[in-house]
Every structure is written in C-alpha cells, then in structure tokens.
Specification:
This protein has eleven helices and 14 strands. The chain is α/β, with parallel strands linked by helices and 332 residues long. The chain has two domains: 180 residues, Rossmann fold (3-Layer(aba) Sandwich), CATH 3.40.50; 124 residues, 3-Layer(aba) Sandwich (Rossmann fold). The strands form three sheets. The chain has a six-stranded parallel sheet with strand order 4-3-5-6-7-13, with helices on both faces. α7 packs across α8.
Length: 332
C-alpha cells in the first residue's frame, strides 16, 4: 500500500470519484492506448477535438513523458488529438499558449509555474471561448488565471511530507536544492519542508539544466559544511545524479528527491535514495484531458474551484516494489 501523509486522506474520496468517472466516457470502438495496445474502454462518440497540452518542461524531460502518456491515453479514449509543446522560459510558454489560441484548439491543458507571467495569456484563451485546465504546477494561483480545474500536487503539502520523513530519519541539517529560479512550486516545496522539519533547513540554488554543475555545487556545499546530513533535490534525474555522486564519494549524507524515474527504483531499494515524494504524473495528464472532454460534452467542471490532488505519496523501501510494478506496466 502507498503511504499517504495524514492530510492527504481527506482528498482521496474526491480523487477516487474522478478516477472512477474517468473510466466511463462515451461509447464506440475500443480505445487505442497509444502504446500499440487497445484499452478496455470505448472511444467516445463525440466529435473529434484538438487539445493543446502545454508545459514548462525542458525537451526530453522523462517526468513529463509520463504526463504525456496519460494525456494521450485519455485522448485515445475521448476522441481527442493531443498536441504537446513545452518551453522552460515562461515568456516562450506564453507564446505557445497564444499559438494554441490562434489555431483555435478546442481546449488547453497547461502547467502554470509562474501565474503572473502566464495569467494574461490564459485569460485570453478564456475570452476566446477556449476552456483551460491547469495541471502539475500552479496549485496556489490557478483560479486567478480563469482555468476551470487543477490536477496536481499541493506543493507546500508535498514539502511538509518530506519534512516529516526527514524527522523520521533523525536528520538535523537538510539542504533543499532549487534547480530553477522563479518557479513557485519549487519554492513551495522548500517552504513546506521548513514548516515541518525539526532541524535546520538551508535553501540552495543550483542550475538544474547543467547536471554536472548542479552536482558540483552541492558537492562543494557538503565539503564546506559537514553538518549537512540530508540533501533534498526537487526532481528525479537530479536526485539520481546526486545520489550516485554521494555513493561514489562515500559521504555520509542522505538523499531524498521528488517524483520517479526508472533509475530511482534501484536507488531506493539499496538506500541510495531514502525516499521520494510522488505526485502520480500519469493522472495529471489523463485527468486534464478527460476534464476538458467532460466540459466540452456536458459543461461539467471537476473540482468545484478546488485543486484536485494527485499527491503527495511517499515512496520508500516499504512500497517501491508495487509502484515499480505499475510503472513498468504503463499505468503511472
């Protein structure tokens, strides 16, 4: 079983209802799962739609590959063509949203790492009659953009979960390493850790677009301050890089991270990574597309103007095997 932080339990019935209803869309032919198989559901008999899925992720980001898979699976079921684009520069991300508006898509699903930078363009989509769903980033500010719903992880809560796990490990001095400046969700995670961790939390910036430099910055900090006994990275690939470096150097420092990739599993199993905080990215992509289908078909709005959480879930040695099983089957 997954380990739910206590405060997430109240959200589980609502999310379970969304998942249950998401499996019941429309009738028609069996849905193509997008990976060469055929799903158990039926393709919706609603008219073909085009939806722009837009994110702040850099190209080739494995975490967002899982979001894209969830979106494509929902699109196959809902008779929706999903058009994905991304840019880590919020100004360019705003341009992608404008391009989607100009092409008259039927809906937009967008991550919102910086609401101030994206609000004007998202509101322009609303004014153009294009429904917008927010996902992954923006849980605090999405309502102000005119988006209909948000599917993702409440990031302060995710930070609190990490802080509580650090307490269980008995650590005293933790680094929270931010890999991209100006992304509110990353700062929220560090703030959440600070609110719950009983020891000292020190925030450190290290550029996540250059993995070698990122690791070197952390290594230099550890060498200059031996009191640091835990490092929390905010992305799985970066967590793997730091964990491998710590292991090679023999440093007595715990590493924790956020989200999953295939390299995280063995490191959790051998203790190289103490835990990760998972936000179930497959659900974020799937539910974002499905929510747009419901809205276009029936005017239904999921969430009642409240964020719908897909995390945080703590993954450690106690449950990593079951998580890996579902991931390898393509369901996470």
């Amino acid at each position: 079983m997954f380990k739910f932080p206590k405060r997430t339990l109240v959200a589980v019935p609502a999310l379970a209802l969304v998942i249950a209803t998401a499996a019941c869309s429309g009738g028609g032919k069996p849905a193509d799962t997008g990976d060469g198989g055929v799903g158990a559901g039926q393709v919706a008999d609603t008219p073909k739609m085009k939806v722009a899925l837009i994110s702040h992720a850099p190209l080739g980001d494995a975490f967002f590959d899982t979001i894209i898979k969830g979106a494509n699976d929902a699109g196959a079921k809902d008779n929706i063509e999903v058009q994905y684009s991304s840019d880590g520069d919020v100004t360019k991300q705003a341009s992608l949203i404008q391009a989607a508006i100009d092409s008259k898509v039927d809906g937009i699903a967008v991550s919102i790492p910086n609401a101030d930078a994206l609000r004007k363009t998202i509101l322009a989509a609303k004014d153009a009659g294009i429904p917008v769903i927010a996902y992954n980033a923006g849980d605090r500010d999405w309502q102000s953009t005119g988006a209909l719903s948000f599917f993702g992880e409440p990031e302060v809560l995710a930070g609190e979960a990490a802080g509580e796990e650090l307490n269980k490990g008995g650590y005293k001095h933790a680094l929270c390493v931010v890999q991209a400046q100006g992304q509110v969700q990353l700062e929220d995670r560090c703030d959440g850790i600070k609110s719950k961790f009983k020891g000292q939390v020190e925030e450190l910036f290290s550029d996540g677009t250059n993995t070698s430099s990122y690791v070197s910055t952390i290594k230099a900090k550890l060498q200059s301050d031996p009191s640091v006994d835990a490092v929390v990275t905010l992305g799985p690939a970066l967590g793997v890089a730091v964990a491998n470096d710590v292991k090679a150097s023999g440093a007595k420092v715990a590493v924790a991270t956020y989200a999953m990739n295939k390299e995280v599993y063995p490191l959790i199993k051998d203790g190289g990574i103490a835990f990760t905080i998972d936000q179930q990215p497959y659900l974020q992509g799937y539910l974002a597309i499905d929510a747009l289908w419901y809205y276009k078909k029936n005017g239904n709005i999921l969430g009642a103007n409240q964020s719908i959480p897909t995390g945080p879930l703590v993954i450690d040695k106690t449950n990593v095997d079951s998580v890996q099983k579902y991931a390898e089957a393509g369901g996470r």
